[in-house]
Amino acid sequence: MKIRTLAPAVLFLACSSSEVPSPTSAAPDGAADGASNGDAGGASDAAADTAIPPTPITCTDAVADAYTLPANLPELIDARLGDVVRCAPDTSIEPLAMASRITSAGVSTDVKSGAKSYRVAYRTRRFDGSATISSARIFLPTAARTADGPLLVAAHGTTGVADNCAPSRYETVSDYLVLPAVAHGYAVIAPDYAGLGTPGTHAYLDNVETGRGVLDAARALAKFTGATSSTRVFLYGHSQGGGAALSAQVLAPTYGAGLNVAGVVAFAPGWSTKVDVSGLANTTLSTSTSLGAPAAFTALILYSYFGNRVGDSHTGDGFAAPVRANVVQLVESQCITQLPFSIPVVAPTFGSLIDETFRQTTLDCAGGKSTCAEPGKSYLAVQNANILTASNAGAPVLTIQGLRDVVVPPATFRCVADKLKAEGVDSTVCTDAQAEHLTVVGRNTKTMLDWVDAKVDGKAAPTCSSAVLPACQ
Fold first, then answer.
1. Res 330: pLDDT
2. pTM to 2 decimal places
């Protein structure tokens, strides 16, 4: 059953609760033992490390510093986008450990390289243009596939908005998305997005902010490795990250300079194509519906919107007064692994979760009624502005969708595919009849890498399966 609460175009963008560990299930900040950090019992692969060129970036910070804003940074001009302002040496992953971690992540791929990783912070802009930083992990292969790149950016799916939900704080959480490309010989940066672990509130599902963050992550990796402006860049992501990668495709021709974005790959992308708030009318719907995921996503959307667009002291304005403090506390302390189960305990229905004034004014404004007022009026304006027009002058796009996906259903994905086609994007659609939301990346990693390889080598892109999709809903 399809559930609509705020907008179907954003409700199912996030990844399911098994995608991100709870803060206690993985060691944060690299404090894992030798087996989990890929050091084969603590011993680094010294021979392989000699294949990594020295980074032009000074890298002497402590890991914890990667999440703190340095003092006295100069004004953020375009030339400084992507400047690496924090850098800490992280872990080494020798090839055997790389193979083990990739297999454990549910991906089957050849392992041609180990890696050296770093924890960094880089400069970027928020949705309103203000300067900030984003944390990230950088992975350099010990055996690069080519001498001149390319550079890859891996954009993650929903984790939450609490600082402890930043994927870079955990050693293996992004293995399924990041390590296969590194093992293939490509340098990869995996950004957390601004405000997720770093100062400010993560602008959850804000296409401008996450798109900028992805592009500036590419700039950070280029500056970290000493790459030139001609070095090809590929952006890829899953779920929320797929939407971020598509947003970056839109913004690349006009945001900053010096990037050669050669391709974008979006797995089950969560990307706004329309706004429909009709689901707000169903106040009796249980927040436990669909294992609590829609309620969790709704809580993240409202917390982020009010915190960023109204003010830090207003993060709870979208929640009903009796549960407001409790829901805010949950969102600020828990990740997507926990929120689907904890929110229904506090607010058993959507009517008891969502503030009535917000709910009614949003419905009134969407319906064109004379009673349209705040806060619904501004909320709808922001959601409409969040729908970006794809760039027909931008990079080619490969989208990959599982036909068993209930998080981003095929009918929702069809809206994305239709939008890209209508806006003149060079886009290819691949479908997997057996893939679900959490398996679509692992099952189709080879498709992505073959497509990137073809672009790098100047060859024709490989063909893929593409079933007839249901109509856009």
1. 98
2. 0.90
